Amino acid sequence: MLQVLNPATEEVVATVPAATAQDVDAAVARAARAQERWAAAAPADRARLLRRFAAQVDDHLEELARLEVREAGHVIGNARWEAGNVRDLLDFSAGGAERLSGRQIPVPGGLNVTILEPLGVVGVIAPWNFPMPIAAWGTAPALAAGNAVILKPAETTPLTALRLAELALAAGLPEGLFQVLPGEGGVAGRALVEHPGVAKIVFTGSTRVGKQIMTACADRVKRLTLELGGKSPNIVFADADVEAAALATPMSYLDNSGQDCCARTRVLVQRSVYDRFLATAAPAVESVVVGDPADEKTQMGPLISRTQLDRVRSYVTPGDGIHGSAPEGPGFWFPPTLLTDVDPASPVATEEVFGPVAVVLPFEDEADAIRLANATEYGLSGSIWTRDVSRALRVSGAVRAGNLSVNSHSSVRYWTPFGGYKQSGLGRELGPDALHAFTETKNVFIGTEPADHTQSPEA
Ligand code: NAD
Questions:
Q1: Is the C-beta atom of 260 inside 6 A of ligand 1?
Q2: Ligand 1 neighbour 261 (Cβ under 6 A)
Q3: What pLDDT is recorded for position 452?
Q4: Which of 20, 300, 323, 430 has the fewest other C-beta atoms within 10 Å?
Q5: What is the whole-number distance in angstroms between the Cα of residue 209 and the centre of ligand 1?
Q6: What angle do CA 144, 163, 290 make, to 5 degrees?
Q7: Ligand 1, closest atom to CA 126?
Q8: CA distance linking residue 145 with residue 98, whole number of Å
Q9: Ligand 1, atom 13: nearest CA belongs to which residue?
Q10: Residue with CA at minimum distance from ligand 1 atom 37
């Protein structure tokens, strides 16, 4: 059994049965049957059902958001955005089903066409930090491209995923096409990865587990998308609007209590404006409102679990550095923290803490900023603050990361691609090509000339 705790109170919200390897076997068999019929359906029919699914999510948006507040401690405004992201992505992907098409490539002696075929059954393994959006990023385009999906949510956050599966059925999606199997990573997750009937795995989670899954997939040449960790830079040049950059800094790494793969946890500030930057950033960090995630005014809630709280405490003691406040008593609380005078090679400056903690490091010039920004095994996101457009372009060209923003911290839109360089991942999700990650390309040549059987077929 999986026990779901409210991270703000430590009260038990629900207990959910954990799927076994046999449950995965049965789910894959059901999914394979449903997928055959789904792939044969007209694209417009698949699109219509996905739009109905989006409408169901929209009708239950507040309920889904409240459930996410209870099981994951997300602040209510974010939770509403997350449910809305599922709706929008389903809608967007529905249009993709209607537009997915191959190409006709001119060749001599016949007609050559490419056909984009669905893969079959896709396994989506999701983390606990954004349970709804990340589940949908794999699921919606996979379904739209004609696949069936088995989603394994994280152990701590199965409830919104289970509710989404109910809403899919209510929308009229065929039984077995989208199944949610809560369970342990090492049991249900592993069974999905190793199952010969699962054609592709979409994994979002830690780089450590991602590497294990990559190894298991390599054995079977199983298709794989990986969205892994990050240690993203927030680079503030002296020619930027320094006050605006400083005011935007707290929520660039404190959103979702820092449990965000795109969190800008390395704040790199040009030395000539370092003190000026901190004079604005410090009070902004100190005044972040931490507390009951259901309260509309709250900016930051608790961490997801005791394990995560212990992990954050292993890097930093509450009350160190520039810091805000956090509630006392039950719940997994840690105050917003900004550390200065940190060794750039120390664990807190190089490893993904996944909590409300960032470090500020000074740099000398553009070359030094780029060197520091790239001094990480990760490459997911990053921000560049400057008023010089040429510098913005030069630095965005030089930073090895998949999602950069200039004078902003925005990383995620469902209609633009998302994914990591280096050890932050493999492949891309979202954006105009999202469905392509869930298809095989088949090339078919139809000869129109009488064949000369004395020649090589390639002559
Ligand atoms: P995790 O790796 O511990 O778990 C992720 C999922 O994998 C869970 O569902 C878990 O049950 C499952 N799992 C664990 N072991 C498994 C195994 N051996 N086989 C199959 N499945 C297994 O990660 P987490 O702690 O839940 O999530 C936090 C991590 O996710 C952070 O590192 C964060 O950066 C990363 N993340 C990345 C992105 C991105 O898009 N790049 C987005 C969100 C989170």
A1: no
A2: yes
A3: 78
A4: 20
A5: 7
A6: 110
A7: 9
A8: 9
A9: 185
A10: 228
Question: DSSP 3-state helix, strand, coil percentages of the chain (rounded to 5)?
Answer: 40, 20, 40
126 within ligand 1 shell (Cβ under 6 A): yes
Is pLDDT at 457 greater than 90 in this prediction?
A: no
Which residues are marked as active site?
A: 227, 261
Tell me the CA–centroid distance for residue 375 and ligand 1, in Å.
Answer: 23
Cα(223)–Cα(221) distance, rounded to whole angstroms?
6
Q: What is the mean pLDDT of residues 394-409?
A: 98
Considering the entire predicted model, what is its pTM? 0.97
What pLDDT, on a 0 to 100 scale, did the predictor assign at position 459?
66
- Contact indicator for 253, 263 with CB cutoff of 8 Å: yes
Q: Which of 155, 225, 228, 426 to mutate to test the pocket of ligand 1 (most atoms within 8 A of CB)?
A: 228
Domains of the chain: 2-228+424-444 (3.40.605.10), 233-406 (3.40.309.10)
β-pair partners for 447: 110
Tokens of 324: 């805000």
Rounded Cα distance between 38 and 44, Å, is 12
Question: How distant, in Å, are the alpha carbons of 228, 354, 416, 418 from that of 402?
Answer: 12, 19, 11, 7
Residues 179-238 have pLDDT tens digits of: 999 999 999 999 999 999 999 999 999 999 999 999 999 999 999 999 999 999 999 999
pLDDT at position 69 is 98
145-159 b/e with 16+ CB inside 10 Å = b? bbbbbbbbbbbbbbb
Q: What residues contact residue 32 under an 8 Å CB cut-off, 6+ apart? A: 120, 121, 148, 197
Nearest-angstrom CA–CA distance, 248 and 255: 11
- Give yes or no for a contact between 11 and 23, defined as CB atoms under 8 angstroms apart: no
Largest CA distance in the chain: 85
